[in-house]
Amino acid sequence: MSDYRRNRWTFGVGTIGRDMLYTLISMFLIVYLTNVAGLTTRELAWTTGVVVGLRVLDAVTDPLMGVVVDNTRTRWGKHKPWILGGALLSGLLTVLIFVDPGLHGAARVAAFAALFFLWSVSYSLNDIAYWSYVPELSTDLRERESIGAKARIFSLVGVFFVVAGIVPITSALGGDDERRGWLLFAVLVVAVLWAGQAVTLLGVREPQGPEHQRERTSFRDFVRAIGRNDQLLCVAVAMGLFMIGYTTTTSFGLFYFQFVYGDEAMFSIFAIVLGVSQIASLLLFPKVSARMRRKRLYLWATVLVVAGYVLFFVAPTGTMAVIGVAGVLIFVGQAAIQLLMLLFLADTVDYGHWKLGKRNDSVTFSLQPFIYKAGGAAATGVVGLTAILTGLNDRAVGDLLEGAPLLGFKGAMLALPLVCVVGGYLVFHRWYRIDETAYAAVRADLAAREGQRSAPVAP
C-alpha cells in the first residue's frame, strides 16, 4: 500500500474519537452544567463566564503552541509526540470534568476552572499537531481533498455518535443517576479517542524530504507567518464568523427539543438524519469539486445554509418534516464549507511559504483551534446567557417556551448565526485570491526555487 493511501485511512480514523471528545465538551458541557450538574443560577453564571474567558485565553495562546510544534525535532517527527501527549492528558481531564467534586460555590467554580484550563491546553497541543499534518501529507490539490474529505467523514461519525447517542446512552448507563450516566459516557468517549489516536500514531508515515526539513521558527517568524500572510488572515476571519454561527446553532440543539419542540427523544433521530446528510455531502464533495471551482462551491453551500436557517426560523413548532428539511439544508452546506475551510487553510501554508520564504505548517494550522475555541467561547456565552434570561436552568424538561422567551431563543439559535455565516462568506468573497490557477502557479514557483537550491554548483 502506498504511503498516500495508508496515510489517508490511518489519519482519518484518528479523528473519530477526537471529534467525539470535542463534541462532548463544546456542545454538551453546557447542557450537563445546566440540566445535570445541579448548579445554582449564580454558579451557572460564573461557570459560563469561566468557560468563555478560558476559551478566549486559550485560543490566544494557540499560535504560540504552533511555534512549539514547529520547533519540535524528535526521532518520531514533530507531530506524533504532541498527538500522543495531548490525547492522553485531554482524555484523563475529560473524565475528571464529569466527576462530581462534592464542592459548592466559589470552590466548585475554581475547581472546574482549573480542570477546564488544563483540558483546553492539552487538547490544543493534540489538535494543532494533528491537523498541521494535512499540508505535509500531500501537496497535490486532489490528494489533499481526498485526505481532508476522508478525515471529515470519520470525524462526523464521531460527532454524530455523540449527538445522536448522548440522550439514550447516558440514560441507559446511568438509570436513575444522570451524573453517573454522563461520567460513564465520558469514559466511553475517551476509550475511543485513545484507540483512534493509536491507529494514527502507528499508521501514519510522515514524509521525509527537503520541503519537510526546515529551520526552527523564531518569535519573529511566528509574527511574520500570521501577520504578513494576508490570505491566511482572510480565511481566519471568514472561518471564525462561520464557526461562531455554526457552533451557536448546534449548541442549542438539545435545548430546542427539550424546551421548544417538546420531545427530547426526537433529538437523536434528528441528529442521525443530519449526520447522514453531512456524510453524503462529504462523499459527493470530490466529484462536485472536480466540476466546480471551490469559490463557486462555497457560494452554493452558503445558499443552502441560508435557505435552511430561514426555513427553520419560520417553521411551525412541532413540524418535524419542515424542521428536518431545514436541518438537512443547513448541515449539507455546513459540511462542504467546513471541508473547504480546511483546504483553504492548507493552501495558505504553501502561499505563506511562497510569499515569506519559510514554511510554517503548525503555526498556520494553530489558527484552526484558535478559531474553533473563539467560536465555542462565543457560542457558550450566547447559550449560557440565553439559558439564564429564559430561565432554562429553572425549567423542567418539557416546560415549553412561549411568547417573547421563545422568540429570543430562536433569534439566538438561528438569526444571529445566519448573520455570522453570511458575513463569513462576504469576507471570503472580497479578499480571498488563491483559486486553483493561483495555487498551481505558487506550487510551480516553489518547485523551481527548490530545484535551483538543489542544483549542483558549477566548478
Automatic annotation (TrEMBL):
CDD domains (alphabetical): MFS_MelB_like (cd17332)
Gene Ontology BP term (one): sodium ion transport
Keyword Transport tagged: yes
Gene Ontology terms, MF aspect: symporter activity
Pfam families (UniProt xref): MFS_2 (PF13347)
InterPro entries: MFS_2, MFS_trans_sf, Na/Gal_symport
Transmembrane segments: 21-39, 81-99, 111-133, 153-175, 181-204, 232-259, 265-285, 297-315, 321-349, 370-389, 409-428
UniProt keyword list: Membrane, Symport, Transmembrane, Transmembrane helix, Transport
Domain of life per record: Bacteria
The keyword Membrane appears for this protein: yes
A single GO cellular-component term on record: plasma membrane
Protein name, entry field: Melibiose permease/lactose/raffinose/galactose permease
Top-level taxonomy: Bacteria, Bacillati, Actinomycetota, Actinomycetes, Micrococcales
